[in-house]
Amino acid sequence: MPFISYNYACSQRRCCVSQSDEILKAASIPVELANRDDLISTVDTCLSSKVVHQNSEVLSPIAADAVLAIIDPLTATNVDLGDVRIVKQVT
To answer: Among 29, 39, 54, 74, which one is most buried in terms of CB atoms within 10 A?
Structure first.
């Protein structure tokens, strides 16, 4: 079995991480936080792989409105989701 040095393995890992980062940035589509329809579409995409995807028509606008309520849409470039409070209602 060939011996692979630790330094070589680390350098290869760094190279892979760097290339992956470049590929993801090239494939990404920036979301304009001031555009409610873009936010809803982004939430729909996120929910498509979740158990609640069948309720995305209801949940996506709620999530988009929650984000818009905690940011200044004209200046915000990121969202701290820790600022969103989740209230659970038992019926």
So the answer is: 39
